[in-house]
Fold these 3 entries.
Entry 1:
Amino acid sequence: MESSNYKLKIGELIGQTRAWRQMTQAELAKKIGTSQSAVNRIENGNQNLSIEMIEKISEALHVELLAFNKKGTVHFKINGGRELTGAIEIRSSKNAAVGLLCGCLINKGHTTLKNVPHIEEVNRIVEVLESIGVKLRWINGGADLEITPPMKLKLDEMDVVAAKRTRSVLMMMGSIMNSYPKFKMPYAGGCNLGKRTVEPHLAGLREFGLAIETKNDFYQATVTDSQIAEKTIVMTERGDTVTENILFAAASKDAITHIHNASPNYMVQDVCFYLQKLGVRIDGVGTTRLTVYGKANINQDVEYEISEDPIEAMSFIAAGVVTDSEIEIRRAPIEFLEIELETLRAMGLKFDQSPVYLSRNGQTKLVDIKLYKSKLAAPIDKIHPMPFPGLNIDNLPFFAIIAAKAQGRTLIHDWVYENRAIYLTELSKLNVRNQLLDPHRIYIEGVSEFRPAEIVTPPALRPAVVIMLGMLAAKGESILRNVYSINRGYEDFARRLNSLGADIELLY
């Protein structure tokens, strides 16, 4: 397709969608941080458009402008074998963002979340919130999101399609249950990682009077008013989203709640910091024992800056390691990367670390990490995740591709998800030697000479990124098909890797 014809077709689509949204050119310009005249040029096909600008317009108009082919899919063509150079700054946390978006429903006032990641997971939650009457406005060039709840949520009008595409919607239960005695919630989706029960969520929320009846494709919730002034909830599973759900229920209840075996992970801490801004006292933040002094009728106008993403930081660390590159990862949340870095140090990775400084939220500790070329050796013991402060569950898959660069045999034990290790066998298509022992354990044989391949992206976020990183290290042209699962959790990942010297093209 000729460039001018392409720009005209894009412009026409943008203009039609804007009109359908009953939005003026000036209003769209404000949302995307440009001028009305620039929007006019875009709609008339007279303006070159970057992928980043198309993504901004997509967010503003709530439409996937990049999904042009019949299946609505996007692919990556990766010309691998290039050494990366330079520095990259870590952006805000995807998992913290979706939790905070769900938690904002307990606040009757305005919430402004700063530096919200523009990813598919966030898009789905935004669509759900808008469908139930929440007013959302992107400000400051689309970096921040202003959230204003209605007097009464229109829960019966929830966008079921969007809700079913993200498991995070479950956290809305804890946020709304103290205000709505009856509601229904669609079954949750997200990554395909085997059977993931919602029972820990329901068990915790039952303590606040929630009863669930399972229907064909949704949960019917009934809430009875619990008058207990002080209670202790012992979580049998130290889950991140489960802890957040209980926190939301406890924060909006005029009672004292002790939560034992709580997750102290990064996204839970973000939620705690936000709730504290709402005037909710929480003792024990960063530990497994939380005490929440809840308050009914929360109505505060607040701003909260989302902390940096440790999983994104680990993604770029892995990218540097597998491409044998010297790069700098800035604004890395060190408290949630310490075990990963020590594991890599034991394997032979050479790196420097800056003095600690604070995130813009005033709480999260950050460092800059400089990677150097290194010869790696397989660890003596298996690599396995643990709840924080152990090696992060979401960071474990990155060690599979790193192990392919290490001399010797590495055992990866993913005891949490029964399917994720199976997805890692796809690395064999890149010439990574591996042996699957069972749904949880896989041996990786190093040192592999990566080879290019064409692979359909697994329906699980982290294994998908691991394959992408393997393609970066493979000399030649690789195709990664249908990258939706990557776009669920990463903002502009391909372009940011390109800024370090990678060669990744988008195909439609």
Note: The chain has 18 helices and 24 strands.
Entry 2:
Amino acid sequence: MKKHDKAGKHPFTVSIRGQLMLFIGGITLFTLLLVWSIITFALEPQYNRTIRAKLDGKAAAITAMIDQADKPISNRSYLGLTLNDEFWSGVSGTFQDKKINVDGCCVDFSDTTLRCLKAYESMYPCLLHESTGAFGGDFGYNVDTRVAIQLRQKLFEEGSLYQIIRIGSSMQMCVGRLSADGQYGVIVSTSLAQITTAAEVLRTILGPVALVLLVLDLLLAVLFSRWFTSPIRKLSNGAQEIAAGNYDVAIRVEHHDEIGRLAEDFNHMAAEVKRSAQLEKDILANVSHDLRTPLTLIKGYAETVRDLTGTDAEKRTEQCNIIVDETDRLSALVNSVMELSKVQSGAEKPNLIDFDMGELCFEVAGRYDALCDQNHWHLELQADEAAPVRADPAMMERVLHNLLGNAFHHIGADGQVMLRVLPQADGCRVEIEDHGPGIPPEDLPYIFDRYYRARQDSGKVGTGLGLSITKAILQQHGFAFGVNSAVGQGSTFWFVMRDVRTGPQA
């Protein structure tokens, strides 16, 4: 068969190591992109919202002082501007005591004339007043700049004010409020230079930092992927060894995670594959031997009938009978191999129905009457009570025939075989007992294996598959089974037919 070219079959394949590196690198790039997006689109707006809320709170607190004043805070007449000194002294004290903290701010007081009443500065420069910082954290007078007049006009027209002003490299936020009577306006401003500078610095250093982080992450990804894929490579190499026919492979379990459990399962699989391979070799050898013997006999006697027997009818009949017997033996072997193959492969599924196991045992036992009479044997059936079960009766009949055939094959000098059906709460226990030579303890663990024969069975006629077929059928049903034996006393093969719906097997 023509082998497929790997490159043609898989034109592009990324290894697990490569996938891990791509994943970690992708996560790093995504994280850096997310940071850049936050700095660019979220940091400044969020900062501005915070600053606006603080300035609005200061402006609201100052306008509340105006609203609570007992007298007007100012009076304009033809004589000029007259201020309420008591009110302004209170405002100054409030600022100095930081009851209203205006550090780093400019505060502008105006009336409906759009002219300044008082100005307070604790920030340089103050773009609102185009100030040189001469106030130094105190009140000044008549600060009527172009910017201030424009903002006052907007405040009195709209009732509130929010605006960011830029002059050169400086950027400041202005928030304004009107008094309750609408006669006075308060504008508070502060600098946004810090957040702007911070954002610019972050965006500047983000590129080099991203490059360094990406390189470090890729190096870490290489080391991590090498460590992570090491047990997988060992498993792959082990699988290749098994595929090449080397079954003595064991993966060292170094971890107790999913990979460690996979290694344990692999070792178990390797052991089972080795056992199965050895068993297949044994089967092939046994089948070859068992097939060769009857075929040789058939051929030999057929040639004898053809060449030597002549007209001797008695000899011809004897030799033809031998050919028939060997043919039957060959047919039985082939049928047993096919039956075992079907049961073990799952091609033949149990047809579960309800029936009385005692009645089935009675029917099967009756078929051995002629054999017992011919050989002066005795098959005793103990099935006095009904034993309702759920199983495949045809398969269970095969089990009984196999176990009874094995018992008669090893029957003791007393010629006794016992077949018992013992009802239980959820099924029954079936026992087949003989008084033969028994099974040596070293043979008991393997007695149900294919083609396994105890030492005392060497050279005896038989396919060596009866107990293996029995085991496969009982395992398909989920029934417990086993054998109790003592050398020189006999053996008792048993199985428990328990409805698997009622609970686990004992």
Note: The chain has a mean pLDDT of 79.
Entry 3:
Amino acid sequence: MDILMQRTWAYFWLPETKYVIAAAVLLTLIALPLLAKERRRAVATFLAFVLCLVGQLAGAVFEALDYSRFAVMVHELFVIGSGMALVRLLAMLVFRGILPRLGIVVVRIAEDISVLLLYAAFILARLHFVGLDPSSLLTTSAVITAVLAFAMQDTLGNVLSGVALQLDNSLRTGDWIRIDDLTGRVAQIRWRQTTIRTRNGEVVIVPNSQLMRGRFTVYGRADIPNWPWRRWIWFNITHDSAPRQVIQEVEKAISAADIPNVAADPAPTCVLMEFGPGYARYALRYWMLDPQPDDPTDSAVRVHVLAALQRGGMQLAVPEQSLLVTKENEAYRKSIRRRETERRVADLRKLELFAGLQEEELRTISEHLIFAPFASGDVIYHQGDAAHWLYLLASGEAEVWMEIPEQPRQLFRTIHAGSTFGERGVMTGENRRDTVIAKTELVCYRLDQSTVDEIIHSRPEISRAFAEILGRREREINAFMRQFGDVPHAPVPQEHGMLEKIRSFFEL
């Protein structure tokens, strides 16, 4: 038994064995802290090396039992395996640990090619070491390779195309690309095919040769965050609306609204593209930062565009050949107007300001209301703007923000349905004292300055209701501003003071 163990150990423990083991342990210890994402693979490679050592020991046992030919085969097989494990550890350490920290990015296929060449070199060297002639093997392999190349020319074409794609850096993992009608993010670039994941979660396999022979569009790079991508929204407006008004209203609405994933620079632009029978065609061009939420971003932008067009009284149009003609008579049109009036009167009854008015007076006011919807995030007016409108909120919520010197913008209050806002500027002629932004989608109406003037002169007593509201708002503002030390302690404003200011402004 002792002789058997001595023979086994002598065959297994060669002079270079300790250096090979030391190299494997050292490479693993260095690789573990450097390869945070590859630790499991590094550990698995080291375990494969250990198993190869066990295999070499098994070969030594066969040699001690006088199974020489079998022992040599087993021993050399596991020696090659342990060498390949060392090569793999070295490649992982260099390509995925050291080079990235030096700012050098090597594509995956280049790493794979380097590893394969080292594998081949080590195997040939080992074969030469044990007495085999590599030249005869290479001659035989050349014939076999030629036959396989002819039989697998499509596969080889895909492999070479994959190598070319990564070596020239034209396509990288994480890029957003479009191939014909296919759009998605590159998930993997393999030797034979490229995997693309669409926004719907579908995984599409594209042969690399197809990418090289055809044309694809890269509209988002993985290594460049917030790569701007220009998107288009098309809409038709009737000829009743002036092009300058359409362009200004749309651009103002999109630029002022804080829409997620829409770039502020370059700024959105609206352009008139063409004329048609009964319509003018416009395009809104904006830049999107992340291609992933394409549809949600497009939807949000369209909501703001539609709200801006509705506020401006601009009517969407369709080509004449698509129009559906409805026969209307005067009774039908009166019915439509009556229903709309009843709806507006019902909304006016909810407002504190007009609670004391008679039915006929509410109907008169309703005829002057201008429908002004707002999408969530729309800026209704800015602090410091001239006051032209009194707003009546029928549904939704809006936020009132105040700009305070040497302070970030502060949320003052939230406006709920059944409220009015913008009263002070319209009733006193002062500029806006705050900024109002739509918190949700708003169903809103507005009255212009001339209409408010008519209401005040026809019902002077309504000015008292305005004075009460303005006095209450003034006290709320003073209490809010004192938090920041910007307003000195002063007498609480009284309603009669506001009433006199209103009467003076309207010359009552």
Note: Confidence is low (pLDDT under 50) at residues 147-152.
